[in-house]
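User: Can you fold this complex?
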Amino acid sequence: MTPRALARLLLGWGLLTLALAAGAHAHARGTPASGPFLATAWVAGAFDGRASGDTPEAARAALGPTFARLAVDQVTAEAPLPPGPLAAFSFAPNVDGAVVRAGSKTVYFTPDELRRERIYDAAFGAPELGSGFGVSMPRLLDLAASRLGLPKAELARTATVRRARMRPVAESREPAPSSAEVVRSASLLRARAMEAAYHLVRNQDAAGRYRYLVRAETNAELGGYNWPRHAGATLFLAEAALASSDPALGAAAARGGAYLRAASLGDCGGRRCALEEGVPGFGASALALLAFAAIAPLDILGGPPAREEATRLAAFLRSQQRPDGEFAHEYDLALRAPVDVQYMYYTGEAALALSRAHRLTGDPQDLEAARRALSHLVLHAWSFFGDRYWVAEEHWTCQAMEDLWDRAPDRQALAFCLRWQEVQRALQGPPRPEGDLAQDLDGSFGITPFFSPRLTPTASRAEASVATLNILLAAAPADRVQAAAIRASTARALGLVVRQQLLPGPSHTFRDPSAVSGAVPGSPVDLDLRIDYAQHAGSAMLRYATFLARHPE
Amino acid sequence: MASSEAVTDRSVGSLAFGVANLASAALLVLGVFRGLPARYLLVDVPAAVLALLLAAAGVGLLGGVRFARWARPLSRIASFAALALGLSTIAALAASVAFLSGVQGALGSGGAVLFVLVIALLVPYLVALPAAQLLWLRRASK
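Assistant: Here's the predicted assembly.
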C-alpha cells in the first residue's frame, strides 16, 4: 500500500465514521411522537390495567370507572433497538419505556412498569448488589409474553421491541422540590431529614429492631441484618431527636440502643464489644459507640447508661490500636488477641467514635487514640504514587477531622479532606442544565450512562463535604473560592437525594405508600430501602440544614 | 553497499514487526478474552482470527529465510485485517458514543474520557502498527 493510498483510506474512514456517528445519534433520538397517552391503573402497587387515547382525558375515560390509582404517560418518541448487547444500553432508566408489537398485538411498558419489574440495571454486573447495568431484554420479553398471552419463544421470534420515550403527564405526579429550593432552604432540608427519621421509626418494632431491607413496591422485608447499620440508624435517630427535641425520636433511638445492647454487645477478652453472629465486629463496635455517645445526652436509655456503654466500647477500640495509629480490625475470641487486618471504613469510624467518646468521658486516652488514628488515615493509610487521583471512601475520616478540630486540630487532615473534595467534585462533573441529561442524575458522583447513581454514597459524600466546609470556614475563612465550590457540590448532591426521597415518590407503584414514606431508595431505579440509606441521607440533610442556618447564602 | 543496507533494513524490519505482531496478538487475546467481562461472538471471532493471523505473521517474520515464501504475504493479510478491524472498531465505538448520547443526553465527562481512552488504546496496535507494516512491506518488496 502506498502512503498516498493509506492517507486516502484514513481520510475516507474518518468521514465515514463521522457520518456513522451522526446517523447513530439521530437513530438513538428516535422518531418524535406526540402520543398516544397511556393511562395505567395501579391497585395496591400492582399493574391493574391500561388504556390509551389521544388525550390524557380520553385515555382515562377509556379505562372506565375505577378506584385504582391512575398514572398517565405520554409517548414522546420511539426508536428501534440496535442488535446485540447494545440493546441493553438503549434505554435511559425512568425515562424510556418499551413498546412490543407481535402481529396485530401491541403492548406498551411505561418506565414505572420497567422499574417495578426490576428490568432496568439488570442485564449485566451484579444487580443483587446494586451494581447492575443495562436493561434485561429477557425479562422484558418475559413481561411482554405474559401481558400478550403468547409463548416467549414465539414472541422472541416474531415480535419487534422498540424503545418508547415517555413523559409523565404533570397532573398525574406530585412534583418534587426544585434544586433551587433544596439548596437554599434549611427548613426544607430539616423537614426532609425528619421524614427520613420518621420512616425509620415506623419501621422499628417494639424491641428496637428495624425492618432492615424493604422493597418499596411490595413493602416486603427482604431479610438479612447488619449490626453496624443498626447502630448507624440508631445514631441518626438520636441526632434527629436532639435536633428536633421530638420525644418520639428519642424513644426510638433509645429502643434501638437497648436492642443493640441486648442482642449484639458482648465480651471480647474482658472488654465490651459488638458481636456479629458471635464474631467480634470492630466496625460494629465503633458504630455502637457512636450510637451510645449520641444517645447519652438524651439520657433515656434504660439499664446501664449509654455513657457507660460508650466508655467500655472505647476501651475495646483503643486496645485494638497499633503504635502507628492504625487499628487491627478483627479480634480472635479464642486467642483473646487482635488480628491485624484492615477493612474499608473501620479506622475512620473508630477515629470518629473515639473522638465522640472523649467528649463524653474526658479520658485523654480516647482523644490521643482518635488523634493518632486520624493522622494515620491522612498520612499513611492511603499513600502511594497516584493517591491524589485514586482516592478511597473517606467520609468517616473527614467527619473525624471535623469532630476533633476543637481539641486536636490537624491541618494535614484538613488538607487531605480538601484534596478528597477536589476529586469528588471532578467525579461529580459540571452542573447540568435541566434536560441536558435524559435521567435525573445531576449531583451524583461518577456520572456515566451505564450505572444509575447510588444515593447512599452521594449522601455520605455530602456528610463529609459539610464536615470539611465547617472546618474550612473556621480555619481559612478567606478561602471563599474553595468554600463556594464545596458548598455548590454539597447542594447538588443533596438536591439529587431530596428529589429521589420517597415523599411520596412513585407512590402509585407502592403497595403501602405510607409505610415507605420518607425513605431514601438505593438508586432512582432500585427502590429497595435499607436502613443505612435513610441514615446517611437524613444525617447529610440535617448537617447541611444546620450549616445553612448558620451560613445562609 | 545499497544492497547490504537494504538487507539490514529488511532484517531489522522483520525482527521489529515480527515482535510487534506477536505482542499485538498476545495483547488482543488478553484484552478480549481476559479483559472483556462477557463473550460476544461478534467481537470474539474476529479477535481470535486476527490474533491467529498476527501470531502466524510474527512467527513467519522472525523465522527468516525458512518462512520467507509466506511470511510477508501473510503479514500483508494480517496488516489489512488488523487495519480493517481497528478502523471498524473505532468507527463502531464512535457510533456507540453518539448513540448513547442520543439516548442519555449529554454523556458525563468521565464517560466521554473513558471512550476516548479506549479508542486511544486501540490506535497503536490496530491502526498505527498495521499501517506502518503495510508501508514497510511495500518498501521491502521493491
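Residues 75 and 166 of chain A are 4 Å apart (CA to CA). The mean pLDDT of chain A is 92.
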